[in-house]
Hints:
- Belongs to the cyclin family. Cyclin AB subfamily.
- By secondary structure, the protein is mainly α.
- The chain is about 45% helix and about 5% strand.
- The strands form 2 sheets. A two-stranded antiparallel sheet has the order 1-2.
- Strand 1 and strand 2 (about 90) form a beta hairpin.
- Helix 11 (about 305-315) crosses helix 13 and helix 11 runs antiparallel to helix 14.
- The longest helix is centred in the middle third of the chain and has 18 residues, at about 200-220.
Amino acid sequence: MMEEADENRGAGPAKPAAAGFREAGNRRALRDIRNLVGARPYPCAVTKSKSGLDEKNPIFETRRPVTRKFAASLAKSQPESCVERTNGRPVLAPIGHERRNKKPADASDCFRAIDVEFSTDHDLPLPMVEEATKEMDYDELEEVEMEDLVMESAPDIDSCDSENPMAVVEYVEDIHNFYKRAEESGRVSPDYMINQFDINEKMRAILIDWLIEVHHKFELMHETLFLTVNIIDRFLSRQSVARKKLQLVGVTAMLLACKYEEVSVPVVEDLILISDGAYSREEVLRTERAMANALSFDMSVPTPYVFVRRFLKSAGSGRELELLSFFLVELCLVEYEMLRFRPSLLAAAAVYTAQCGLRGFKHWNRTTELHSTYTEDQLLECSRMMVDFHRKAAAGKLTGVHRKYSTFKFGCAAKSEPAIFLLDGSSSSSSR
Length: 432
């Protein structure tokens, strides 16, 4: 084998191994593509000639790289019509630019022309824009500048949790943007009670006030209470319920919410016991199936809880503001008329009202406004209703929320002074 290699080496250059290489003899190496001025173009029907070169463009004969000296020589060799001047310095014009604006010599050339010039001998109407521009005096034209519509972005409030994997800082904004878009799906009509024949708003308030006490007794999570109330309202908006079964609906809704939110779920027997044995285990499980089917097993709805947490973080809250905000929101859970407010607006109004109550004047900082997307004026109506509920919380028959937040565990938030000045619109100052 070595001897054959030596013989071949002395026989001159080796021939191509395949016929395909001979057929592609006019192909250019990759290193020659677009990196040398004067390199011949690829063979095509327009540029190909018998000799393989474009005789009209002798510049294609050379294969020198572009240098400053070579570019200057090209500029000198071209006609004066091809050289443009900028600040007295010659600038090389594109090759063939003198032919670009030339009219076709005959009809056959018209098929190769891109821009066709129509004759202006005919009295054709000008387009409306051109006609208007023709009549205008260019000295009277004014420069119109578009207004910069730059939306102010919300300040970053999650950088402090960058080391906490449970805070999901990477996509927490996406989560809350989704909550804002999806909150309508979890809402009910604010007048759904007109379709109930045996229950009314007062019975609903009694049920929820009792469930708040049960929730507190079982030491369940905040999320469970808000989801329980949401399940009750959504079910009652779809299904008529007899008065004697209303408590069963409430107990079953709490069982469903616990299964969705809690780690340790109360057993059915505990819920029957807390209901004073009014219902059997079979009734609870049958009602659970009916409620889950009526709601299409959809328990993933944004409640005011998730929004309160987010807005408290944007407000830089302390423990006192947090407890007072949740006290105001839970007061609203009992009230049927508060269903007409979106969960996010309800949460923002609770934080705003709590801030006003603690500070003694109107306060709604820019960071919280950007994260909540609600201005102070948009919150005033809901906030004034909360102040009224706060003022009357200790009176009347439904005092479950007031008793709960009057304990030391909840910082005696119910005993704080309500922001009465919001009711008449008076305030000492407004901090932005």
